[in-house]
Amino acid sequence: MDGEELTEQETALYDRQIRVWGVDAQRRLSKAHILVSGMKGTVVEFCKNIVLAGVGSLTLVDSREVTEEALSANFLIPPDENVYSGKTLAELCCDSLKDFNPMVRVSVEKGDISSFGGDFYDRFDVVVISSCSFATKKLINEKCRKVSKRIAFYTVDCRDSCGEIYVDLQNYTYSKKKLDETDECQLQYPSFEEAVTIPWRALPKKVTKLYLAMRVIERFEEAEGRNPGEISIADLPGVLKLKKELCEAQSFNESHVPDALLERLVSDTSEFPPVCAILGGILGQEVIKAISGKGDPLKNFFFFDAIDGKGIIEDISNPNPGS
Amino acid sequence: MASHQRSPAIKGAKVLMVGAGGIGCELLKTLALSGFEDIHIIDMDTIEVSNLNRQFLFRQSHVGQSKAKVARDAVLRFRPHISITSYHANVKDPDFNVDFFKQFNVVLNGLDNLDARRHVNRLCLASDVPLVESGTTGFLGQVTVHVKGKTECYECQPKPTPKTYPVCTITSTPSKFVHCIVWAKDLLFAKLFGDKNQENDLNARSSNAASSSQQAEDVFERQNDEGIDEYAKRIYDHVFGYNIGVALSNEETWKNRNRPKPLYSRDVFPEEPSQQNGNMDKNCATDDPLSVSAMASLGLKNPQDIWSLLENSRIFLEALKLFFGKREKEIGNLSFDKDDQLAVEFVTAAANIRAASFGIPLHSLFEAKGIAGNIVHAVATTNAVIAGLIVIEAIKVLQRDANNYRMTYCLEHPSRKMLLMPVEPFEPNKSCYVCSETPLLLEVNTHRSKLRDFVEKIVKAKLGMNCPLIMHGPALLYEVGDDLDKDMAANYAANLEKVLSELPSPVTGGTMLTVEDLQQEFTCNINIKHREEFDEEKEPDGMLLSGWTQAPRVEKDDNKTVGNGGSSTSNASSAMPVEAEEDDDIEFVPTGKKRKVGEISKATNPNLSDVADDDVLVMLDGENLDINKKKKLQ
Ligand SMILES: [Zn+2]
């Protein structure tokens, strides 16, 4: 129980959550620095949760201007041109988020997320990126991994009524309460690149089809040089062709990647707000766990599909690392 | 699923939300973003500081204002063109009757108490409007769908009754800290500062046979010439010293128990406590009675610290003095309130001193406040997830997609890889007294129990009725209403005081009573069975209501269970709500009982084919839920 005590104001504001995760966790939260990129619905939900939880600081990156699509699942920005014209998404979200909790420093970092160097990432304990290309995800994950301290890295994406969270905590030790004892647990996470290059045949049996479908879409957008989400029903034949190739190259049964699912993922790429809330909630919980070192963290993918209503954890890692 | 926002089922829907708290704020936001354009929201509460960590539509500057109204204004800022109607009112108000409910396509609950949930359930049944019900506590949550005739209603499964403790455990033989809290709050605090006419068991076991009850009463009265220091110490010595001493004299009690240690102020304080007086001046800065604090006057700051016996004793005396010094006018009318700092300090200190006497570990003020106030554990993330799930179910209800209704559990630890676990809803319980017409059975001593007992303990407390009307055949025995004429009202008042068998239309074994709530448009029949004797400890009501059994459910004979395997019986309810009455959302926590997941219809949805193949017995692990902390104390 080192470190300074919580102020009276903090104790009053955070009373209900301290009863869930304890004073110690609350203190750690108040010293944590979070970076997010891609201010769409899911990330906005996450930001709200983490600002309410009382992190030390939150830095937003998104230099895009407001579009109708960007507003569709975003409750931080009033749909009033007089308010939003001339400002970036990050700036607008920052203005609103500051209001949620005066004890959290919310700020904007201008520029392109992939151009920042290692010393930039060094300032953060948690990095969350969304609406990024395959290449950018890999790049930033690698940058975070090269920083000497451990950065908890997450990607989160919502397409239509489906969502995916990826988690990289590298080497992670945490305490787990079992009845009256507290166990030390250790987890070893693969990098994003290591995870997604695991041959499909080596994946856990009955791995969710959403994992596979998301990889096909990711590769398709990468090969076509598209921005994330820049895809439509017209692309379906191309996507199905790529799926066939990927499956054949890995001698993998094509039926595990249903065409109907791919069709859903290409035909509407806008975020479904209830799914944003669910993903943003789960992600918020995971980040709180990682900062506080309490509770089983997710390893290493989470999927949600509103059609079946399941929120599933998949461990996509090489069973024999280093071999 | 594409383009929900533009779906006519959503756009044209008229939705009623009950509750604008933790779940409510999230839900209103998600509904608005999802394209709902006509939302009505009811909440009787005003905003408090401890709401702000998760009820994100509210700011510090809103404290004291109507939750429903502030939530409405906040959401209209980012969706100015939709219609939101707010009601700062209790959902149990007569205005919200069946006709009111009938105008909605679906009702969404984000409530915090069993009573209101049952009330809304009945109105939804009576008006035939589907209900999506929800609850969260900590990282756990649940969403269920209730559609009349298709799925079970909210009351198809019995809800557990609030936890109560035997009187003698509280008055004589506490073994847990919670027993000390109940003693400090419901007995000592109530005795000293509450209504003097209220029955109180504080001295029940400690006054020996010789002293009359009148004498025992006087102990707690401050004498006219008695100084406040003297009085405070006398109370301390009486309840922690003398009473324990008296209890110790009953050897039988302590045969198999650790003997408590009587504590007298002269032993606890190293010197005269009057020289250790707190600095009351620290409390002079403010006139707000709720901010008077013994901690402040003694210079204790951290509510997380566990005080020593000496510190607790100082707080006890100081708090008692402050009540008499600063808040004398309220004495006689006080009831414990978790937001009353001085009351929390007094109860914490008293509970800790008693705990010390009985060898029970002491607790911090923060912990004691949580136990005494039944404070709900709540975080924003779970509420956000649950609100998302509510909207998904609401849309299915509006699209009449009955085959895909699900109840969903939000878990803290994954079960079968799932953090969010959907389960097919159950069919209505054919013996549910609420949604079927099955009569209940009441065993009662018809020569001893009064109509008042029946109204209070059964009709109101057990059946959750607001405005009951009781009939025996064509004879009206009792009714509630503003428009009763004088004679009728006098008649009913007289009936209340009569024992059942002596009512104008006598109620005896074999009688069937009809009980109706006009507002809820809910009727049920109760068969009366006469019984002479009742066990005082186990059946404190002196009545036993039954006949409300769970429908038998087919169980699969396999061992696919997760969690605490010991409890494999299927009688008790699954998915038990844990009730905590506070200002916020709480409720059902899945506990360790089986629920059978039925056949998920695969034909209607090809995407389900891969996941529906294992017809599973789901058992949710209640082990780690810390439910004890949230139980209602009394
Ligand atoms: Zn029912």
UniProtKB/TrEMBL annotation, chain A:
Its main location: nucleus. GO terms for biological process: protein sumoylation. GO terms for cellular component: cytoplasm; SUMO activating enzyme complex. Residues 14-310 form the THIF-type NAD/FAD binding fold domain. Heterodimer of SAE1A or SAE1B and SAE2. The complex binds SUMO proteins via SAE2. Belongs to the ubiquitin-activating E1 family. This is Ubiquitin-like 1-activating enzyme E1A. It comes from Vitis vinifera.
TrEMBL record, chain B:
Coiled coil: none annotated. InterPro entries: ThiF/MoeB/HesA, ThiF_NAD_FAD-bd, UAE_UbL_dom, Ub-E1_IAD_1, Ub_act_enz_dom_a_sf, Uba2, UBA_E1_SCCH, Ubiquitin-activating_enz. It holds the Pfam family UBA_E1_SCCH. Residues 552-592 are annotated as: Disordered. Residues 442-534 form the Ubiquitin/SUMO-activating enzyme ubiquitin-like domain. Residues 328-369 form the Ubiquitin-activating enzyme SCCH domain. Residues 10-433 form the THIF-type NAD/FAD binding fold domain. Pathway: Protein modification; protein sumoylation. Keywords: ATP-binding, Metal-binding, Nucleotide-binding, Ubl conjugation pathway, Zinc. The keyword ATP-binding applies. Heterodimer. Belongs to the ubiquitin-activating E1 family. This is SUMO-activating enzyme subunit. It comes from Vitis vinifera (Grape).
